[in-house]
Fold:
Amino acid sequence: MANPKRLAPKGCTPTLYSKTVAIDYCAQPCRCPPKVYPQDDLSVPLMRISYIQHLLVLLISFNIATQANLAIAQNKEPDALEKSYQALFQKLIDGTAEQQTEAERELLEIGPDVLMQIPILPTSAPLEKRETLDRVRGVLQSKVIEAFAKPSVVTFQGSLVGADALIEIMEQTGNTLIIDKAPTDDIDVDFESTLFWEALDRVLDDLSLKADPFADTEGLRLVPKSNRADEASNEQALRRGYAGIFRFEPTRISATRSLERAGLSSLSIDLQVAWEPRLKPVYCRFPMKTAFAECDNGEILRATSPESSPEYSPAGAHAIEANLQFHAPSRQAKSLRLQGSIEAMIPGGVVSVEFDELEKTESKSQTVGKLNVTLEQAELREDILEANLLVTVNNAGESMDSFRGWVMNNECFLQTPDNERIKFGGLQTYKMNGTEVGMTYFFDLSSKPGFAIGKGLAGYRLVYNAPGAVVPTKVDFVLQDIPLP
Structure:
């Protein structure tokens, strides 16, 4: 646990504050543990670490190297280790076929530690060499993002202050928590590989706090329970379910009975589905073919539309409200057990796709995870640059509608030779089908006199920021003892 008296080491920047404590987090690759010390005049909310900082730390420090590579890291100075990586990349680019195969195998065994060392070849380099490096980069990025998308677990035991328990959960999972006043009550905890949401709920229940996953904040906001209204939540807590990165909680149930046709009677169940705040799903959907409810009297309720898969696109919050429809039970049933599954696409950290030599007419492509980004054309029309960017989503399946909006919301800008960013002034789509989104970005260059004297696009780069991978995830869930109306 963090020591309340210990100060941050040199080079660490204090970034997390409340009215009662300040918490130092190291932004360096060493990822020092948090340090807590009393403060009386600070009012910034407790526990705020950015999603980008967490991913940066993950990309730098994540290590899945083999034992042999770990031995190399322990016995070599950093410069020597870096040189060994460079030697492997040299073999990968210029070696014989046998050397290239061996170098690629070794690099992939080392893992994401070498991501920052991958050389960037100019577009004039042979296509085969660039494709080889892109392939290695793509595999390593996928490993990082797949690890990032795995559910977080918590392990610690003992009696400690509530604020320390929250800090420990945050430190072990990488999830941002925000609270206006650090809790000072002592609580007893006993977590062993406990899922993030389950551990957090148990701590919050002990502290008379609750999570507000619909707050429009970067992290998950924690707020006090409001006496009577939330006392009933103690019973409601028994109906929660946890699976993977998700927490499921039934919030409303209603039955509609048709007086004309009994077959049209239905049961509507509303679920609040929250995910770890460090993740931002592209979409969540519920395949109703495998969903069912079992009543306490043995009745089995099937979905009214078993071939449907209700889909939801999150909008800024850390949860959605989903509605599932089943055939209505008989009046003899008093409660039910709900079983189903959720499918989601989880984007990882942002990776920049850059295109230079814009004055050349041939198209250029780069692959990032499940996205293939192609600059089909960049044309200067007087003072306006029109850039046609085609984004292909591999294996988007039936959820392309969700992907379209997400792809179009990714950042795109023009970078000048002096590193100035120019935001696009307009955007329109020129292609849209089952797997592709074609977008034309318009950049106003009227303030750049260099174009008027024939310098053209030399030195300019088009940058499209996309996730390093989009990872599909599917988990089953079970909710017990849901009372029927």
The two ends are 46 Å apart (CA to CA).
